[in-house]
Amino acid sequence: SAVPGYSPGFKKPPAMLRLKRKRLRSSEPPAAAAAPPPCGAAPRAPSAPARRNPFSSLDNAPRAGGTPPPRVRDRRPPADGSPSAAPFWQLLEPVCEGKPAGRAEPSERTDFPALTDDLHLPVAVSEVPSSPRHEFPADWSLKTRLLFMSSYPFTWAEHLKAQEEAQGFAQHCRATETNLPQSVQEPKLSTELRCAFQQSLVYWLHPSLPWLQLFPRIGADRKMAGKASPWSQDEALQQVLMSDWSVSFTSLYNLLKAKLCPYFYVCTYQFTVLFRAAGLAGSDVITAVISPTTRGLREAMRNEGIEFSLPLVEENRTRKRKSSELSLETEVANSLEAGNSMENGEEVAPSDDDEESFSWLEEMGVQDKVKKPDAISIKLRKEKHEVQMDHKPESLALVKGTNTFTLLNFLINCKSLVAVAGPQAGLPPTLLSPVAFRGGTMQTLKARSINAKARVHLAYEDIFSLEIVGPVMPHSLHSLTMLLRVAQRGAFSAALYTHEPTAVFNTNLDNTSPAFNKEPTGKDVPRCGLHPEAWDQLSQCPTLGKSAIRFLEMKDYAYTWKS
């Protein structure tokens, strides 16, 4: 029973004190009050129960000697499961063993916070396949980090021998296709698996400045601050760097045009450009996507004669037009007069407003005393929506076909491509490619395996993880998942950290293109350095929209993902 005179639900002191005094008067039996004291005992005055602090806890309250500890009331959640129905003290209750075991609490992850905290980041889920699939969709965004986790160890990815490392580099340079069995019993003893792992970590970079982190470039000023940059104040050195960069950029485009390079990225301090060869992303011509863009950049591209489109803006307009047509049809069906008035007034009000916006000044006779806005101000007012989308995913620009060559020349000669002040001043953009090119430097993604213990239920289980850090391109993600499918027996999960400005590269560029209905052909796959399965994946139409894959899981050799 509860302690007399104590109420856990003490909320209104005056009312509760009155109720307490009333209970004390009614609970004292008259017979007990009139009973004489035992023989030899000193008479004592009638006393009430000791006063208690109503805000104290039942567990730490002082008890009289021999008094059994009070029974704590049942703290289970209400039967209806409603959070609002639960008392407030239950929300403040610490973690207990009665909670569902399937959910890891922070106190249960203290043994390896650096690993599991990454997997419990809030993720906005936009698409989860209803049934597992044998392949996940193409993700054209750049990743800064991958964290794979499995119940099987990653010892096969540790401490590669010199011969295995050299063999992996040779396989990459020769575009050797590695065919592994569906599963390997002893991954650590498989030389083919370890060589293929080294092969999947290779990428090509320009420029190569080991003391600077050249990816990502957007928002990297803080990381580059204080680093040596002798070119920032030397114009002659800047010209040499830009000349060398132009040669590398042109070399990459020529490889792309000849289908010897599937794609490459140009990372500037303001935007990123993705060049894709014909046959990829559902397009039968070379494409280049730029994000994010500004009104000034788009205006400069128009002045250079570059034809481009804004797919997300056009998609928005199409959606609004369809919705307006549906509403118009509904109004016409309900009222013919309302429909006629809508048709007569359609797109007339804006022009009337533009032409007669200052007519009231003439009526007042002050048209000469008030300065009217000039043509530039009026133009900016009309293009307000275009300025508002600057630096946003909606500002994605698409260039197709021969216009990509014009874009190449524009970027080489564009003065705003390189920062003029700050830590990145005078530093050319970063070029990232899956294949070798003139002036490119071979680099490898950094990989390390970590073993930890996680508390599950009342015991500890081994959790093995593999961390990949660096600019992870689409082909690397596909190659790594193919290797893990074999080495981890078709059971692993991965947290993918996306470079956010590139997530919009997964946008469906053109729904009317006939290439979307074509089956992927792999006749040029051996020449471009991609695995046939990777080519088939990247040749499909992007389906992720403006999002990217954040979480990837394989169970029984089938994928599920969240974006």
TrEMBL record:
<feature type="compositionally biased region" description="Acidic residues">
    <location>
        <begin position="344"/>
        <end position="353"/>
    </location>
</feature>
<keyword id="KW-0539">Nucleus</keyword>
<dbReference type="GO" id="GO:0005634">
    <property type="term" value="C:nucleus"/>
</dbReference>
<comment type="similarity">
    <text>Belongs to the DONSON family.</text>
</comment>
<protein>
    <submittedName>
        <fullName>DONS protein</fullName>
    </submittedName>
</protein>
<feature type="region of interest" description="Disordered">
    <location>
        <begin position="320"/>
        <end position="353"/>
    </location>
</feature>
<dbReference type="InterPro" id="IPR024861">
    <property type="entry name" value="Donson"/>
</dbReference>
<dbReference type="GO" id="GO:0033260">
    <property type="term" value="P:nuclear DNA replication"/>
</dbReference>
<feature type="region of interest" description="Disordered">
    <location>
        <begin position="1"/>
        <end position="88"/>
    </location>
</feature>
<keyword id="KW-0217">Developmental protein</keyword>
<feature type="compositionally biased region" description="Low complexity">
    <location>
        <begin position="41"/>
        <end position="57"/>
    </location>
</feature>
